[in-house]
Amino acid sequence: MTDDHNIFVTEETVEGADDGPLADATVAVKDNISTEGVRTTCGSAMLDDYVPPYDATVVESLKAAGATIVGKANMDEFGMGSTTETSAFGPVENPAAPGRVPGGSSGGSAAAVAAGEADLALGSDTGGSVRNPAAFCGVVGIKPTYGLVSRYGLVAYANSLEQIGPLGPTVEATAELLDVISGPDDRDATSREEGADTDYASAADGDVAGTTIGVPTELVEGADAGVRERFEETLEDLRDGGATVEEVSLPSVEHAVEAYYVIAMSEASSNLARFDGVRYGNSGGFEGNWNEAFSDSREAFGEEVKRRILLGTYALSAGYHDKYYKQAQDARAWVKQDFDEAFESVDVLASPTMPTPPFEQGESLEDPLQMYLADANTVPVNLADLPAISVPAGETDAGPVGVQFVGPAFGEEAIIRVGSAVEN
Length: 424
Ligand code: GLN
Description:
By secondary structure, the chain is an alpha/beta fold. The protein has a single domain, classed as Amidase signature (AS) domain (Amidase signature (AS) enzymes, Alpha-Beta Complex), CATH 3.90.1300. The protein contains twelve helices and eleven strands. It has helices at about 55-65, 105-115, 130-135, 170-180, 225-240, 255-270, 290-295, 305-315, 320-340, 370-375, 380-385, 410-424; strands spanning about 10, 25-30, 70-75, 120-125, 140-145, 165-170, 210-215, 245-250, 350, 390-395, 400-405. Helix 6 (about 255-270) crosses helix 8 and helix 6 packs across helix 9. The longest helix has 21 residues, at about 320-340. It is globular, with a radius of gyration of 20 Å. The structure holds glutamine.
């Protein structure tokens, strides 16, 4: 197999059970999801030679379902990024838009599906990392409701926000993978019973007659003209299918990006403390004192990861905690409340997944703030613990455009149904 786009960090085949719902399927697994005996780097030099002694629950599920794992997909380091350019193993190129980024942080996973290197893929979505690369690569991606899929064996970036999610070429195929990985897990206390018995694939029936779709004006206004055009055409198609479209307002989303980054960086600063050369990660040796050895070992982190550990530590420090972390938690509660209110009058919400088409490679690294703002439409969903899907909705000159549908908690069937109508 040739990997022209730098999609895989490690290409290794792991066969699953002889039969099962995914017996004919190949799957790429994001490299922050633990695979027993197969190197799991999180896109970081810190874990260059780390081989987990156990499988993540989702990997056990893949194997039991008969899937063949074909490799560990490249990603932004520890999931921190929106373009897959912060990987210590080099950037991934977008197979659907040459010279452009595949989105991120699950860029390798989306690119694997877009390039036909795998039938399906697993990514993780802390603030958009499944939906963003799905949109940029012209494939489907689902961010499940918080608790629907076990996080056991997912290397943590920001636990309270993230979920493992499926990517695939069609809504139905992606939903089939969700069927395989969803359900409660004794090893993840945040996993939930709810939704476990649902047949997600059968919800991909394209029937939107009678569905009310809300469009949050705040998530459309800032989008590029080409993206808005594709979005409006999608709404038109849904109206033709019998759906009603109405405007709604989510005033709190104005603060979502800042709240998300404070919370995500705070959690990251705590989670990444385990990479100290003793418990995990590159060892600097222990000739001198502990502080020196600790700081030596952490040289292995890249720029973006270091930036986030510093900012997260600052936001949590005594004296600043109330000013940043607590305010961010208040904003998170407000975002949740806005979504709850919107779902009193609509079944699903629709917006462009990303406000722009895929960036050119190299463009976003210069200005981290600009990169954070690209997450404006995806992060509110993680703050509110809700499910969302990104579905391809045509292209602009710069590459694919994705449309996002958000549902109420455990409302995956509704967003799968509407997503499948867009495909038809
Ligand atoms: N771009 C966002 C971040 O860098 C989202 C990443 C993700 O979902 N893992 O935090």
